[in-house]
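Sequence only, no structure available. Ideas?
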Amino acid sequence: MKSAALRLGFVLVSACFLASCGMTRMLGLKSEGGGGDLSAVGASTMMLPLAFDHVVYSLNDASESYWMSSVPLEDLASGKVRDGVVAHIQLLWRPYPGKTPTGASALNLAVRVLVISSGQLGLYSGGGFGDPSGDAGEELVELVVMGSSVTLVAKTAGFTDLLSPGAFNADVAARLAPEDSVRFRRAAAQLMTDTLEAPRWVGAQRPEGFASAAAWFEGMVNSPAAAGPTSPLVQVR
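Reply:
I predicted one. Tokens follow.
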């Protein structure tokens, strides 16, 4: 794997190129994995570099589902991860020049990013633009996610949010693995449920806390952020 700094530079160069030409690229990454960053876009200058060694995808009826993780699936499923990042990208439609918007300002994907820091969890959510290379259904496809806007929607009590509002960038090669995609989804949702010691509800129509956030991570409901004390998380750019 390339260093985080080199990988981040590649992501930013790729993003600038794609934003200007609006065309899908030839498949560049030759093996599963990749990287990117989660950066604050407000007054803060914080940035969290990301390295995804495990990236899988699956095909749904009308979209593609990508799972990116810095930790192995087995570790995530064990529920004992102390530090790591898991991202879920739902690619709603592929950009086709002349048929769909192809600029980086368009919206064609939904983003969820679960950050685990010293055992504390923060869930970021948003949307943005993604450009895939390779045909859907191939054994390996590449996906560039460019400047997707995200914000914190749920957290454990000790998690510090220094990244909202933020931007998520990534350039990854994903392996076609429907079963592993389901396992990543279930493991991430279960980790959030287990980390919150007790479900918290503020009303029948408005769930709050990680119990509901975990369900929303499974695609069922949405959740506002939970408040609480903080601890350090990211490094200065």
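The mean pLDDT is 75.
Hope that gets you unstuck.
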